[in-house]
Amino acid sequence: MRIVLGVGGGIAAYKAASLLRLFTEAGHEVTAVPTEAALAFVGKATWEALSGRSVRTDVFEAVETVNHVRLGHEAELVVVAPATADLLARAAGGHADDLLTNTLLVATCPVLMAPAMHTQMWHHPATQANIAILRERGVTVLDPAVGRLTGADTGPGRLPEPEEIFAAALALVARAAHDGATSSGGEVTAGDAAAGEQLAGRRLLVSAGGTREPIDPVRFLGNRSSGKQGAAIAAAALRAGASVTFVAAHLDVEPPAGAETVRVETALELRDAMHEHAPAADAIVMAAAVADFRPAQQHGSKIKKQDNAADPVITLVRNPDILAELVERRNAEGRGQLIVGFAAETGDAGAGVLEYAQAKLARKGCELLVVNEVGTDRVFGLDENSVTILARDGSEPEHAAGSKDDVADAVVRRVTRELASRAGGGTATSKVDQ
Ligand code: CTP
Fold this sequence. Notes:
By secondary structure, the protein is α/β, with parallel strands linked by helices. The chain is 35% helix and 23% strand. A hairpin with a 5-residue loop joins strand 10 (213-214) and strand 11.
């Protein structure tokens, strides 16, 4: 995603450097646009080194690139942090006296402003009126954090932590994408971004799609998973305010905007990516369709048919059970992490779908299992789904049906409830089955 990071001239400008880093590390392209005053706090060299791009503050620089319009046109997200009282006033007044205010006038993408200033400035009716105008126009203006200010005093006016601004920004983009809107307004508090955003400050790791196990450079063993349900879950988690790492095997859909997406091909690559990102996650949702077996041998060149030779035989070896591994490692390391598995089941003469699923839940050791009945005419690639959420604690199975977005919302609501009950119920690890 192309992001413009506007930086106002306040002492908190140094925190914007960490915010920039969070965005670039998540794979986004960031152009820093500090105001002239911001450069008095943190110099151009810092912004250029961290973003890897040249930095300008004035409309009269790089005029040949029509920078004052281009940046705003190209941006998919504008974040202003810190937004000083002066910068808020200039933005509300529609001024265009530097590159940042020009960009704000041109941008039609979601805009998030994170104010930081002294408490009296924050409470001043002029500032409050400017914020009301900006919100009215669809700009998301975070409330400042309360705490120690530059001097000896405390109160509202601190810039929220970079991680909170990062999460609120990604949630804003996800919401805008979901609403199909170009910008989203309203009053949002970082850390509890908006009504219903109960996953703010939480990190979810979601896998989706079908792995592909190479036979030779052109052939693979794959499966019919479209990745739609997993992508919908990642999008629902983003809407709920979570930061999301999305490990994507083969998908028929785009990964959700706002997630940190890691592309993988094979089960072994997916396993590595999940293990790398698992320690930071509050919850893991394994929606990927992982191949249980892979060809024992991967040919370096295309297997040819030879008229006088025997037909080739593909020997398969077992892939690791990633979900079971993640549970085992979580338990061994004593992390209070929620793990959700998926089960694609078919019933047979021996047992029904739910009986097989109960056995799988016990086998895998995760807390929740989202079960759906599959068959060639069911679920794969469709936009509708119907699932049963089974819980390890033996609570009533929960049914959810409708579009894959509806099902995703139900899964995310359940994850939210489980995380909330853990937070309220002593140490998280004490709730983990060992
Ligand atoms: N899974 C995994 N690693 C594997 C296979 C599956 O992590 N090698 C995960 C899936 O992402 C899913 C859950 O395990 O969350 C159940 O997948 P499923 O294919 O239904 O179960 P299997 O363990 O493969 O059991 P079986 O095929 O025997 O029903």
